[in-house]
Amino acid sequence: MKLYLIRHGESEANKTGLHSSPSTNLTAGGIRQAKAIAKNLKRFDIDIIYSSTPTRAIQTAKIISKALPLPIETWGKISEVRTPSINWGKKINDKTALEVEDQIAKNYSKGNWKHSDEETFEDIRLRAQKVLNHLLRKHKSQNVICVSHTSFIKMIILVAVVRKHLSPDVYLQFREHARIDNSGVSVLNYNKRRGWVLDTWNDTNHL
Fold first, then answer.
1. Element housing 66 (H / E)
2. The CATH number of the domain where 123 resides is what?
3. Which one of 7, 114, 141, 190 is separated from 15 by 20 to 30 angstroms, measured CA to CA?
4. How far, in Å, CA of 37 to CA of 17, rounded?
5. Containing domain of residue 185, as a range?
6. How far apart are CA 117 and CA 131, in angstroms?
7. What residue ranges in 37-162 does DSSP mark as E strands?
8. How far apart are CA 161 and CA 130, in angstroms?
9. Reading across the β-sheet that carries 2-7, which strands appear in turn?
10. What is the pTM of this model?
């Protein structure tokens, strides 16, 4: 099985430096990125496309779907990590938003600590594990696209390759220091002998 983890194209929040909400749209540049990756994906034998539910991911997936062509199955479990809704729409460098992020980071190693309505490390880890379990159960001999988001893609990869050694601190450091660009493609390959193997990280050669 090959799992193509694709970050959505550039969103309005990405361009303006805002915290995203579920209704954030792609920019014109994000649409161009989605078209470029869709053209590149024609080279591969893809069986199914999953898309997370936020608007920016669905818009990206629809462009890919038209090019392949394949239908889209929306899947809430691959949506972006939920951040505190109090920060949605605020500038990334907003003082209040930064204070919230600092509180979360200071308490992150506790695993289940919550500031407000965000997902905890344990919430995200369990969701990623359920995604991988579902994919292996339903699509073990297929090639699957998941159009998702940077923080959740990182968690899927860590759950797949780090497994029982994954901790809140490991995830936090990886999330902060491993870059995934808009429309970047990371590929996990599964086989019985080795399990999940990360074949490709943040490929943007299509741009």
1. helix 55-67
2. 3.40.50.1240
3. 114
4. 23
5. 2-203
6. 22
7. 48-51, 72-74, 143-148
8. 15
9. 72-74, 48-51, 143-148, 2-7, 185-191, 195-203
10. 0.95
